[in-house]
Design goal:
This protein is of the alpha+beta class. The protein has a single domain, classed as Gyrase A, domain 2, CATH 3.30.1360. Helix content is about 45%, strand content about 20%. The chain has a 4-stranded antiparallel sheet.
Length: about 90
């Protein structure tokens, strides 16, 4: 699966909480506290295992979570990343 063009990724992210940053799509979340941040990590980890597509996850400032998606083997953002972002959005709405 080839990486998508920058303008295609940007168009598909328009109006969403994700942004294109250095060859990846990134979403920053502010949660209710540390326990909520870890619960979000665990929920995302479950999705990642099911899809065999694993984002970089960073918990910082005790209640902040950064999610970063890229397809390392392809050197950029692919449809897999955008699909995983949609799954993550669905879990975060629950």
């Amino acid at each position: 699966m080839a990486p998508l063009e920058h303008h295609d990724v940007a168009a598909r992210l328009e109006g969403r909480d994700w942004r294109l940053e250095e060859g990846a799509i990134v979403r920053d979340l502010e949660l209710d506290g540390f326990t909520a941040a870890i619960a979000a990590v665990n929920a995302i980890a479950q999705l990642a295992e099911e899809a065999n597509h694993h984002p970089d996850l960073l918990v910082h400032g005790y209640k902040h979570l950064r999610v970063k998606l890229t397809t390392h083997s392809e050197g950029g953002v692919t449809d897999n990343d955008l699909d995983m972002a949609e799954r993550i959005d669905a879990v975060m709405r629950r």
